Amino acid sequence: MPVVLVAAWWVATAGSTDFFWPPLSTILGTFDDTWFHGRITGDVLPSLGRLAAGYLLALALGVGLGVAIGSVRVLRALLEPVLEFFRAIPSPVLVPILMLFAGIGNGMKILVIVSGCVWPVLLNTVEGVRALDEVLRDTARCYRMRPHSRLVHLVLRGASPQITAGARQALSIGIILMVISEMFAASNGVGFTIIQFQRGFSIPQMWSGIILLGLIGIALSAAFHVVETRVLRWYTGLRRAQREG
């Protein structure tokens, strides 16, 4: 399917004289000079670093709070209205507010990513913990499993399908917020560079940046799939055994 889309784009823009819609061949011709001569270390790697920091922090917060809220009914009843309120606020709206408190450095950009990525992880973790089999919970109590063993082998492993689903959603949100955060008072990054190209009417270079973001998304999705396959190997094996049985 991606090959078909690229071929359609190539054919649709071949011979185009529109300044804002240049031929794909022209865009690809600028790709190497635009991104592989200084901007990998100056823009791409800083963006990926901020994305990694924000995403991993959101995972830690989402899973930690999700396990606590999903396990304690009273805590869930108290916090659910608050969570629904903050979840409904679009993360880009928080950028000006976060700039006031965190400045315009990397901290603000990481907080923007965290503010959007934490919700799918948190809510999916809560639902995963709530959906744990009561028989398994009772079995763990009967065998007097230690709290740490119960957390790792029962709660986290049992909720891991929902946690990974939330983590996959958070990854795509994180890429979007990475770009948005770099469009506000930034001095480097992929989003900052794309905006600079747009303001300077360097349209082929601007489109090459958009293509780069797509390639980054594909690469991160493939890496996530590898990790997901290993983490959920027990789950996929169980589902396969149930279908065959």
What structural category do the secondary elements indicate? mainly alpha
In total, how many beta strands?
A: 0
CATH class: Mainly Alpha
Global shape: globular
Based on the coordinates given, report the CATH architecture: Orthogonal Bundle
Q: Provide the residue-averaged pLDDT.
A: 87
> Main sheet?
none
H-E string: HHHHHHHHHHH
Organism: Actinomadura physcomitrii
Keywords: Cell membrane, Membrane, Transmembrane, Transmembrane helix, Transport
Membrane topology: Multi-pass membrane protein
Subcellular location: Cell membrane
Task: Provide a descriptive summary of the structure in words.
Helix content is 82%, strand content 0%. By secondary structure, the protein is mostly helical. The protein has a single domain (44-233), classed as Orthogonal Bundle (MetI-like fold). Helix 2 crosses helix 10 (203-231) and helix 8 (147-182) runs antiparallel to helix 10.
What is the structure about, briefly put?
The protein has helices at residues 2-13, 24-35, 39-71, 73-87, 95-102, 106-130, 134-142, 147-182, 190-199, 203-231, 233-244. It is mostly helical and 245 residues long. It has one domain (44-233): MetI-like fold (Orthogonal Bundle), CATH 1.10.3720.
